[in-house]
């Protein structure tokens, strides 16, 4: 896939993806990047991910806390806040409402 | 008051951590006592007093030298000069009393036919004079070695001078000798009162001098002006 | 450029862009953790240090630029002679609240003498010093008590400000932590390493929350990490509105300094 185009798309939804990944529990930067890659979104570089996390933290959608993990070094763990949960619901629905017609249109174009 | 007590406490804590020095300091009065023990009891008592005076003034010397760099900082941190030197002196007096008590018990156990109140008073005089005396030397001389040598000279002079000679009264620890005579030889009360008076005068003079030296060293400098915060 | 170097440059970039000290520290630590776990070239993972620092600033903003406040230290016409040798001639320095001043110059040009005159520890032959508020001074060496524990130092200095024991201990340990030192062990000062002793020395001078802080080459015996912590701490104190004077012969931190007094030409 054209990486530029993928980058543009990601810029719009990376915050939603991160919020969604944090829904079921806290995580840290590197783990989030791996989860996104595994899910098939593609490799996300630290230079893209951390500014998003910092923005989410600053706007109060996530909180963060430095802690020693079970193994390995101290890491900055992010947790979803109540505001974050609300933003995820709202933003997620908006995304789904947006992406469904886009998929429709594009599907017709590709199939046709 | 809190500041003064804190300085006293820290002085004591510092000195009690210098265990080697403390043991050596206790050794001196003990050795003085042992050497003279077989001869005449009055000699060994006088030597013991001198040993205590030496031990406490040396401790005071060390304490004063050790604090030389620290004191200007404490002054900046809000201490007044008198809190610094009186606090240190207080700590040293407490230490001196702690040193004197076992030796007092030693005289009670080891010698008889003494006026024990006199022994106790003489030891108090030793301690009272020794703390400001050692501090003064520590404040005036730049290093511990010089101070120790000067102290040694004073103690040796004290030991060798005939107590009846006019110059002997000028030595700082003359009082304990005079009171010892009252306590050991059962002489008239004049010895006791002369001794106490001498100790009181010497102690006051030393404290005033220490105050003067500290006051000059830790004075507010004329070139430095303090403006209120704006 | 390896990862450590990249992180160092990145940290410097954040400072230059006036990102708040604590925030910058977290961002750098997080990037370091990421590189350690994932490996990879920092240039590919984060891009250039400059560009990434700019992105971070966009995300979290910067600390408000400190506006220099009122004058806290004003030294004028300071002249000092030792015998026939003039060590200082007509030296002058003005430092405002929220500024760091560096006093620089070759060895023996009178840097320490100048600082001691400002602290009021020695008298100049001519000149005046005016200080507003409380004065803190950290000597180059000495200044600690060999046989006292760190906690006892804090209590002793704290009592000067009327602090009782426990608050003084807490304040001391908190100030020590800012320098990356956990001061909770019962070790007499003489058994501390040179660098740690110096941290004790520094902690004592910041404990009284001075309005004017005078430091005489405060980094003796410091490793690289402690050195960075020290400057972070100084910037933090500056941003709190303190006036700081640092005697130094290392010039590589001058970009984080607001005023420079070079005494080299003063010694004649």
Automatic annotation (TrEMBL), chain A:
Pfam family, any one: PadR
Organism, scientific name: Micromonospora radicis
Name of the protein this chain belongs to: PadR family transcriptional regulator
Ranges of residues in domain Transcription regulator PadR N-terminal: 18-89
Automatic annotation (TrEMBL), chain B:
One Gene Ontology term of the molecular function aspect: ABC-type transporter activity
Primary location group: membrane
This protein's record includes keyword Transmembrane: yes
Domain ABC-2 type transporter transmembrane: 49-154
One matching Pfam family: ABC2_membrane_3
Residue spans crossing the bilayer: 20-35, 47-64, 85-109, 115-141, 148-165, 196-216
Subcellular location: Membrane
Residues making up the signal peptide according to the UniProt record: none
Name under which the protein is recorded: ABC-2 type transporter transmembrane domain-containing protein
Species whose genome carries this gene: Micromonospora radicis
UniProtKB/TrEMBL annotation, chain C:
GO MF entries: ATP binding; ATP hydrolysis activity
Family matches, as Gene3D superfamilies: P-loop containing nucleotide triphosphate hydrolases
Keyword ATP-binding: yes
SUPFAM superfamilies given in the database record: P-loop containing nucleoside triphosphate hydrolases (SSF52540)
Signal peptide: none
Pfam family of the protein (one): ABC_tran
Domain of life: Bacteria
Matches recorded under CDD domains: ABC_DR_subfamily_A (cd03230)
Domain ABC transporter: 73-267
SMART domains on file: AAA
PROSITE patterns, per database record: ABC_TRANSPORTER_2 (PS50893)
Protein keywords: ATP-binding, Nucleotide-binding
The protein, known as: ATP-binding cassette domain-containing protein
